[in-house]
Amino acid sequence: MTMQQVVIQHRSKLVGFFKKKGVNLWDAEELAQDVLIKFLKYYERVNCTNTGAYLYTIAHTIYIDSLRKRTRSKECVIDDREWEKIEMNMTRISDSPDLLLEAEELFVKMYDSIGKLTDARKQAYTLYHIEGYTYAEIALQRNVSVSAVEKNIYQATSIVNRAMERQLGFLMKR
User: 3-state DSSP call for residue 117?
Assistant: First the structure.
């Protein structure tokens, strides 16, 4: 069976597998993609007679890993109805060139404000808000106290929020 046949035959089934586990559609598609990528990585090395069973073994492992990561990062869980609202808003934004430009300007402003942070604040901010590490994990990794991490994240978040508020104020005045 070629890799293309595996993808065609199993992708939607893998998405369904993750949705039955309570994962929203967006994440289910991402996890299914991860399964197929991992399968592709080991495809040449493994001589497996039951491709489906092997894929679902990988899927189960990836699902467990995602649960651990979500628990560790205290990730906000968004259900399918909320994703539909977000997707409708994104569609509305993408249909309007003005809104799309404003969203892009806001993103650029946020990205610039993160780039202007001191190295300690930038690293703490990105590790916490983007990578999903806990304060304790960041402190251990950077060899500083947890309170220093809290302070850096608080200050970085305040700076980024102020920049975003200024940009939103500027956009509202247009």
Answer: coil
